[in-house]
Amino acid sequence: MKKIEQIADYIDEEISDAMKYARCAIQNDDDAELAKTYRTLSNEELGHAMRLHDEVVRLIKKYRDEHGEPPQKMMDRYEYIHEKQMRRYADVKVLLS
User: Fold this and answer.
1) pTM strictly above 0.85
2) pLDDT band at residue 55, thresholds of 50, 70 and 90?
3) HSE-CB for 54 with a 13 A CA cutoff
4) Positive or negative, the Cα torsion across 48, 54, 58, 61?
5) DSSP state at residue 69
6) What are the domain boundaries of the chain?
7) Can you list the alpha helix ranges (DSSP code H) found in 1-97?
8) Cα distance between residue 20 and residue 1, in whole Å
9) Pairwise CA distance, residues 19 & 42, whole Å
10) Residue 62 has pLDDT above 80, yes or no
11) Cα separation of the two ends of the chain
12) How far apart, in whole angstroms, are the C-alpha atoms of residue 38 and residue 79?
């Protein structure tokens, strides 16, 4: 599904931005207010990623309801991308902690 592929790209972008802001927070730990702003921005980007993820889950459920089980090839690809994104998501959370 092209929609899911596009959303997956957007999720990658959101996680990349979250990582960028998390690193900026660490680099600016000598300025508490700026570091806090970067942490907030990072968390907001992670929130965007999760909202997009929720949409992917909804689209897959809709497909199942209307057409039955999605093709295995599509699900294998989705699971691979999803696992990769969740590892990157977790990496950002570690930086933020």
Assistant:
1) yes
2) very high
3) 6
4) positive
5) S
6) 2-96
7) 2-27, 32-67, 72-96
8) 29
9) 7
10) yes
11) 36
12) 30
